[in-house]
Specification:
The complex is a heterodimer of chains A (644) and B (257).
Chain A: H1 14-21, H2 27-30, E1 34-38, H3 42-54, E2 57-61, E3 79-80, H4 92-102, H5 109-129, E4 154-155, H6 161-178, E5 182-185, E6 188-196, E7 199-207, E8 213-217, E9 220-223, H7 244-251, E10 256-257, E11 262-268, E12 291-295, H8 298-306, E13 319-320, H9 322-326, H10 336-348, E14 360-363, H11 365-371, H12 373-391, E15 400-409, E16 412-413, E17 426-428, H13 446-468, H14 480-497, H15 505-519, H16 526-546, H17 558-582, H18 606-609, E18 611-616, E19 625-630
Parallel strand pairs in A: 1-2, 1-9, 2-5, 9-17
Antiparallel strand pairs in A: 3-4, 6-7, 7-8, 10-16, 10-18, 11-15, 12-13, 12-14, 14-15, 18-19
Helix pairs in contact in A: 3-6, 3-13, 4-5, 5-13, 11-12, 15-16, 15-17, 16-17
Chain B: E1 4-13, E2 22-32, H1 37-50, E3 73-74, E4 77-78, E5 100-104, E6 113-115, E7 118-119, H2 122-131, H3 151-161, H4 168-172, H5 179-191, H6 199-212, H7 223-227, H8 235-249, H9 252-256
Classes of the chains: A alpha+beta (644), B alpha+beta (257).
Chain lengths: 644, 257
């Protein structure tokens, strides 16, 4: 039933052939079409700018006060590209292979190959825009290594790569705003998708300043709204990141794929207390030079936890560099899921460090000795400063304490090869879709995918859809379908504002976060997941009976904004748990305790689970229906992942 | 363990851009010193919400010091007492028990208050739209390693490019000038070969837009540099002045030879 629309032919030719076969829109006709882009991160800003350059009219939406604030801005480490500038054996095929393997063989081959193929164009594009990537003394571009790869293919701008790439895309967007091809709507949140005759024809938004519920019509809608990691309450996502736009589209017919695939990033600053509002990532690039360790014994760990001794007091012989010990060929650069699981294991074994005992060390003493403090500062200065600022501990003098935290969601809206969802005319790009990272994303691949989708895929595929529409007539924002959707949103807003219970929205969100982290976090079991479904259903009732929402609709109202988002997170949480329960295998970031190898690694069950789960919404409080897209591997042999 | 403190907040409350605002005194109790400043406000807001009072509205998003959404003038200083940090990266260990903390929004004619501590900074976007880009379309660009850029130049351009667009420079300036912000973007492109073709038009267009938005003039007090959370240097302003002057004094043909 689910047709991925992957073109026939050899892997390396699929995209070229497909581009030729896609229908084009004549330049004079492009200006008759309007495209809505929701979200202005890497995927959204690059798509909006590129489509406008082609001549389409674009309406771009951001919940922040400026497109430049989208959370792509916070990505630190870098962006992968198969340039092979280092002459170290990289190629498009190797990047494709590493990504498929890193994703634990749960991604679609053709999409991943295309991603690797266009990765080289992204770097060219960004440099042409004036993105100041790091350079060698000879003036050419520098690269660093990242997890899950044995070549250096990561381009970077100190620890602020996401910032520089987003500002590049933002500048391209600004150019089109100036030319009148993009109209931008800041402080607007998408609250519903509007369909006419089954096709996506617009969205309903709330103007966050005035509270006005507005209709926006277009010939196609692009969701570039990021991931849903904030379902865990604590994550590395920005405070405003939510699933709301994607979830409302899901309720209008867009299938949601692999919701249980979440990435728990190994190197984050550990939780300190209940007051904490978010977690801060320390870039994976730090694992290039930092060594991960815990003491060999619980006794030494206890002394460290109580502050009786310092990390530097622990003798070399008493340290367990567990990643180097268990994975000699990849060492500290194993993929994220493997690094996270091993940190958890060390902590569960009573060998964690820091006051709470829920942390491991990331130690730069050896690198500082080898390279000097100045070189380390030049590479990671801003990250070290950030760590110092937050923890009041100087990482040049003592090792960082790190622990895994929710960072990225591989699952998302199901899309076909053209990035179209199950709703015709509705597309999902970047982290909002599910397509390229399988069950685990490799470091420095999120930026690559966002920009690949926005700059180099959607400009071709959306044209094909528009060319086949057969009409240039503008979409009428006064069509009854808009009125109906608008009425629904107004009603839901009033429902939320009428809630006058005793708990704050954050109270409920934190409870949801605890359930998700406990039962659908780094280790999952059938028993725990079954229990979690009941807990979440109860929490949903609690939300709708006992939450307190203050203020009015016609003002900046954080309480109302959050309430709407948390209501959606609760429903998504139940679907994530349901998905995790049906997938009785381990793969990538989805670790079912019942399914592990003798060495404790994730054990896949390829015979039964080599598919994408895509869920169809069936109505409020009704069970969602599971559809499957079979994953076909014609080029890569499925093996047990090994990083030893 | 962390120490706890009680604080007296004097917070600017203003319903919207049409009403007058005023300082309101709010007590913040049991604040841990390892909380961030915004987490302290979260706790105050949690309290207000439980009492049925309108929580304080403030802008924030990434809470990692990079998105530029958070603001606040804290005891007279944009982003608070600590050098080189945004408000979201300011921790309560920079304050002491019993302290009174005055919290205000950015104050500038070009940044009207929307509600409480949040202001409208879209003027910054419009300045960028006036010329903060290289005129290049997606596709059809040369290989990234075609042009070698000396590391020194690339690094300097990067330093200018790290501006987070928060507006602290404007809030710090007695004239509410946006010169540091504008000069950072102009410098990035003036330094890099990619920015050369439109170098002078860019400087002129962005400065014109800045003036149109109602930002004040620069009188070189250096307050902007002192309060910039990411260390954008005054030398950027010197460069902008040079770019602008060149654009004004010489004719277009002369610039490009």
């Amino acid at each position: 039933m689910l047709d991925s629309k992957v073109p026939a032919g050899p892997l390396a030719d699929k995209w070229s052939n497909h581009k030729f076969n896609l229908k084009l829109v004549n330049p004079a006709n492009k200006r008759k079409f309007t495209v809505i882009v929701v979200g202005t991160g890497l995927a959204g800003a690059s798509a909006a700018a590129s489509l406008a350059e082609l001549g389409y009219n674009v309406k771009a939406f951001a919940y922040q006060d400026s497109p430049r604030r989208a959370h792509s801005i916070a990505a630190q480490g870098g962006i992968n590209a198969a340039k092979n500038y280092q002459n170290d054996g990289d190629s498009v095929y190797r990047l494709f292979y590493d990504t498929i393997k890193g994703g634990d063989y749960r991604a679609r081959e053709a999409n991943v190959y295309r991603l690797a193929e266009v990765s080289v164009n992204i770097i060219d594009q960004c440099v042409a825009q004036g993105v100041p990537f790091a350079r060698e003394y000879g003036g050419l571009l520098d690269n660093r290594s990242f997890g899950g790869a044995q070549v250096s293919r990561t381009f970077y701008a100190r620890g602020q790569t996401g910032q520089q790439l987003l500002l590049g895309a933002y500048s391209a967007l600004n150019r089109q705003i100036k030319q009148g091809k993009v109209e931008v709507f800041n402080r607007h949140e998408m609250l519903d998708l509007v369909k006419i005759d089954g096709h996506a024809k617009g969205i309903i938004t709330r103007n966050l300043i005035t509270g006005e519920i507005e209709s926006h019509a277009a010939h196609a809608v692009l969701l570039c709204t990021g991931g849903y990691g904030n379902v865990y309450f604590l994550s590395t996502n920005a405070m405003g990141c939510s699933v709301t736009a994607a979830w409302r589209a899901h309720k209008r017919g867009a299938f949601f794929a692999n919701p249980c695939y979440t990435q728990i990033h190994p190197t984050c600053i550990p939780v300190t207390g209940d007051h904490q509002s978010k977690l801060t990532l320390m870039s994976e690039s730090l694992r290039n030079d930092g060594r991960v360790w815990v003491p060999k014994t619980q006794e030494i760990a206890k002394k460290l936890q109580k502050g009786e001794i310092k990390a530097s007091d622990v003798k070399e012989d008493d340290r367990d560099y567990f990643l180097e010990r268990k994975y000699p060929s990849f060492g500290n650069l194993v993929p994220r899921d493997v690094a996270s699981r091993n940190a958890k294991e060390a902590v569960d074994d009573g060998r964690g460090v820091g006051k709470t005992g829920v942390a491991v060390y990331l130690d730069f003493a050896e690198a500082i000795g080898r390279l000097g403090e100045d070189s380390v500062r030049a590479k990671y200065g801003n990250l070290f400063d950030m760590y110092y600022q937050i923890t009041d501990e100087n990482p040049y003098k003592q090792p960082m304490r790190i622990y895994p935290a929710v960072h990225y969601t591989m699952g998302g809206i199901w899309v076909d090869y053209n990035l179209m969802t199950t709703v015709p005319g509705l597309y999902a790009l970047g982290e909002a879709n599910f397509s390229d990272h399988g069950a685990n994303r490799l470091g420095a691949s999120a930026l690559m995918q966002g920009l690949s989708d926005g700059y180099f895929v959607i400009p071709f595929t959306v044209g094909d859809y528009l060319a086949k529409l057969g009409s240039f007539a503008p979409v009428d924002a006064n069509h009854p379908a808009f009125e109906e959707a608008r009425k629904d949103v107004v009603e839901k807003t009033n429902q939320l504002l009428a809630l006058k219970g005793t708990q704050t929205v954050d109270d409920i969100h934190k409870k949801l976060g605890h359930i998700m982290w406990e039962y659908c976090g780094m280790a999952r079991t059938a028993e725990g997941l079954t229990k979690a479904i009941g807990l979440i259903q109860d929490l949903k009732k609690e939300f709708w009976s006992d939450v307190k929402v203050l203020g009015e609709n016609d003002e900046l109202n954080a309480s109302l904004e959050k309430a709407g988002r948390v209501a959606d997170f609760i429903e998504l949480g139940e679907l994530m748990v349901t998905d995790a329960l049906q997938r009785a295998e381990s793969c990538g970031g989805h670790f079912r305790l019942e399914s592990q190898t003798e060495e404790g690694e994730a054990k896949r069950n390829d015979e039964e689970y080599t598919y994408v789960s895509a869920w169809e919404y069936k109505g409020d409080n009704q069970a969602e229906v599971l559809h499957k897209e079979e994953l076909i591997f014609e080029n890569v042999k499925l093996t047990q992942r090994s990083y030893k | 363990m962390s120490a706890h403190m009680n604080l007296t907040l004097k917070v600017w409350r203003q319903k919207n851009d049409k009403t007058k605002g005023q300082f309101v005194t709010i007590e913040a109790k049991g604040i841990a010193d390892d909380m961030s400043f915004l987490e302290m406000l979260d706790i105050v807001n949690d309290d207000l919400t439980r009492k049925g009072e309108d929580p304080i509205y403030f802008d924030h998003d990434c809470r990692e010091g990079i998105c530029g959404m958070c603001s606040l003038v804290i005891n007279g200083r944009p982003h608070g007492p600590k050098q080189g940090t945004t408000t979201c990266q300011l921790h309560m260990r920079s304050f002491h028990d019993g302290q009174t903390i005055v919290i205000e929004p950015w104050r500038a004619a070009a940044f009207p208050v929307l509600k409480d501590l949040a202001v409208d900074r879209t003027a910054f976007d419009r300045i960028q739209q006036a010329g903060g880009y290289v005129n290049v379309n997606t596709g059809g660009v040369p290989d990234a390693n075609t042009i070698a850029i000396p590391k020194r130049i690339a690094d300097e351009a990067f330093e200018s490019a790290t501006c987070i667009g928060c507006g602290a420079c404007v809030a710090a300036c007695k004239n509410a000038s946006a010169m540091l912000f504008v000069s950072a973007k102009v410098s990035q492109f003036a330094l890099l070969p990619q920015g050369q073709t439109e170098r002078y038009e860019r400087a002129q267009a962005m400065v014109d837009q800045m003036d149109e938005e109602g930002f004040g003039n620069c009188t070189n007090t250096g307050a902007c540099e002192a309060e910039c959370p990411v260390g954008i240097k005054l030398t950027n302003i010197a460069r902008l002045n040079r770019e602008y002057l060149t654009a004004k004094v010489f004719r277009e043909e002369d610039i490009h030879g």
